[in-house]
Amino acid sequence: MKIYTRTGDAGETGLFGGQRVRKDDLRVQAYGTVDECNAALGVARAAGPDPALDAVLAVVQNQLFVVGADLASPGESPYIPRVSAELTSFLEEQIDAMEAELSPLKQFILPGGHPVAAHLHLARTICRRAERVVVTLATEEEVRPEILTYLNRLSDFLFVAARIANARAGVSDVPWQK
């Protein structure tokens, strides 16, 4: 199987099921931005988080493939994994466990600190952009509500994961100097 197919050379791509759409279609922008978030998580993992955090981030990367597949597959299909409440519950469990390790936040913090944390903050902002694109897509086409819930919780998870990366590396969060 070749990596190039030439089928997208005219600015179109195929959704699961065969439908052809422009590469700037909102649905393509949505799953493309989810893919960008996943790539940012790969960079964060390459920066060397502690093994426990790395294992959780690996799970999240796999979950983001489910989000992308769900977005790329409008309609019903028994062959496509779908975002479920269980994926969001996993994030909530991880958030709760990490927050139990952290001191309560008493001020706003800036993205930064340890390189892993900085990359996780970047992934969080990309996740928020993905969420905005999906919200816009949902005004034009049907989008499963579980996707929006998952992306909203994922940004919360990434914020807390950045804080835990700093804490476990012995680096302070960067306080906002107002």
From TrEMBL:
One of its GO terms (molecular function) is ATP binding. Gene3D superfamilies: Cobalamin adenosyltransferase-like. It holds the Pfam family Cob_adeno_trans. Keywords: ATP-binding, Cobalamin biosynthesis, Cytoplasm, Nucleotide-binding, Transferase. Its EC number is 2.5.1.17. It is found in: Cytoplasm. It catalyses: 2 cob(II)alamin + reduced [electron-transfer flavoprotein] + 2 ATP = 2 adenosylcob(III)alamin + 2 triphosphate + oxidized [electron-transfer flavoprotein] + 3 H(+); 2 cob(II)yrinate a,c diamide + reduced [electron-transfer flavoprotein] + 2 ATP = 2 adenosylcob(III)yrinate a,c-diamide + 2 triphosphate + oxidized [electron-transfer flavoprotein] + 3 H(+). One of its GO terms (biological process) is cobalamin biosynthetic process. Its main location: cytoplasm. One of its GO terms (cellular component) is cytoplasm. SUPFAM superfamilies: Cobalamin adenosyltransferase-like. InterPro entries: CblAdoTrfase-like (IPR016030), CblAdoTrfase-like_sf (IPR036451), PduO-typ (IPR029499). Residues 3-164 form the Cobalamin adenosyltransferase-like domain. It is an enzyme of class 2 (transferase). Belongs to the Cob(I)alamin adenosyltransferase family. PANTHER family: CORRINOID ADENOSYLTRANSFERASE, CORRINOID ADENOSYLTRANSFERASE MMAB. This is Corrinoid adenosyltransferase.
